[in-house]
Design a protein that fits this description.
By secondary structure, this protein is mainly alpha-helical. The protein contains five helices and no strands. Helix 2 runs antiparallel to helix 3. The radius of gyration is 27 Å and the shape is elongated.
Length: 144
């Protein structure tokens, strides 16, 4: 009996099987902590503005807290991104990309080109094809 599973579901299962290992999850958690600090910076900044409008003594401390949270957020986000990219380059995994989205294979790329750009699988390329057509047109114009 033939397999009736759609290609998309099969590709999704294969992508799930290729998920990055647990060693990347810690770095992703650091990036998530960076986003949390970014939100904290916004809350502290808004509170500092409100405290400044009502002439409170805590305004300076709230503003300093917002700056510190912002710097920490930027440091965590940049650090996790850089380390994830380095690890992915070393280990050959795709931790910095969506693990559910499968990579495009060479066969899929050829099928796409053939289907949507009317190129045969072994085509020379758009520019080469256009160059050949122009030279044929010039030769035909000279004969007419």
């Amino acid at each position: 009996m033939p397999d009736l599973t759609p290609d998309r579901e099969v590709a999704s299962r294969e992508a799930i099987a290729r998920r990055p290992e647990r060693k990347s999850r810690g770095l992703k958690a650091v990036g998530l902590l960076g986003f949390f600090c970014l939100g904290l910076m916004l809350v502290l900044g808004g509170t500092a503005i409100a405290a400044g409008a009502s002439d409170r003594d805590a305004t300076v401390w709230l503003a300093i807290g917002a700056v510190v949270a912002g710097l920490l957020a930027v440091g965590l986000l940049i650090g996790s991104r850089v380390l994830l990219r380095q690890r992915a380059g070393r280990d050959g995994e795709r931790a910095h990309q969506d693990p559910i989205q499968p990579e495009t294979t060479a066969e899929e790329a050829e099928r796409y080109e053939e289907r949507y750009h009317d190129f045969p699988v072994g085509h020379a390329g758009k520019h080469e094809r256009a160059r050949e057509e122009r030279s044929e047109d010039h030769q035909n114009d000279g004969k007419a």
